[in-house]
């Protein structure tokens, strides 16, 4: 696979009243990623004025991104009850791309 860095942006929309619980779960995800990391990565979260949360992650390559997908999806399943769905019926709005 490519050795080019990959950046991923994932937006979450917690249900009203579930924001604090969601933040706790974001911290749990981050701790899990730190414990299980096989790659050097950057991961941070920001809160938007809309009440949504955005995860911004830099992975060293596509292999690292793919390796983390199972853990990420398992975590997303565990917080499903805290999230509103977007118009597309998805729990997130996300995109990824290679550094140019």
Description:
The chain is of the alpha+beta class. It has a single domain (6-98), classed as Alpha-Beta Plaits (2-Layer Sandwich), CATH 3.30.70.100. Helix content is 35%, strand content 27%. It contains 2 helices and 4 strands, in the order βαββαβ. The protein has helices spanning 19-36, 62-78, and strands at 6-12, 42-47, 53-59, 92-98. The protein has a 4-stranded antiparallel sheet. The mean pLDDT is 89.
Question: Gist?
Answer:
By secondary structure, the protein is an alpha+beta fold. The protein has helices at residues 19-36, 62-78; strands spanning 6-12, 42-47, 53-59, 92-98.
Characteristic terms for this protein:
100 residues; alpha+beta; Alpha-Beta Plaits; four-stranded antiparallel beta sheet; 27% strand
The total beta strand count reads 4
Mean pLDDT: 89
Total individual domains = 1
List unreliable stretches of 5+ residues: none
Could you please say which CATH topology applies here? Alpha-Beta Plaits
Give me the number of helical elements. 2
> Quick one: overall form?
globular
Instruction: Give the strand order, joined by hyphens, for the main sheet.
Output: 2-3-1-4
Order of SSEs, N→C? EHEEHE
The percentage of residues in β strands lies in 25-35%
CATH architecture: 2-Layer Sandwich
Task: Note the gap between the termini.
Answer: 16 Å
Structural class label? alpha+beta
Q: What top-tier CATH class fits best?
A: Alpha Beta
């Amino acid at each position: 696979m490519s050795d080019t860095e990959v950046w991923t942006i994932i937006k979450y929309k917690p249900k009203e009243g579930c924001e604090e619980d969601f933040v706790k779960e974001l911290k749990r995800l981050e701790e899990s990623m730190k414990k299980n990391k096989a790659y050097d990565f950057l991961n941070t979260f920001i809160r938007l004025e809309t009440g949504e949360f955005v995860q911004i992650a830099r992975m060293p390559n596509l292999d690292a991104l793919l390796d983390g997908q199972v853990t990420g999806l398992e975590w997303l399943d565990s917080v499903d009850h805290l999230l509103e769905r977007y118009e597309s019926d998805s729990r997130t709005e996300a995109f990824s791309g290679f550094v140019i």
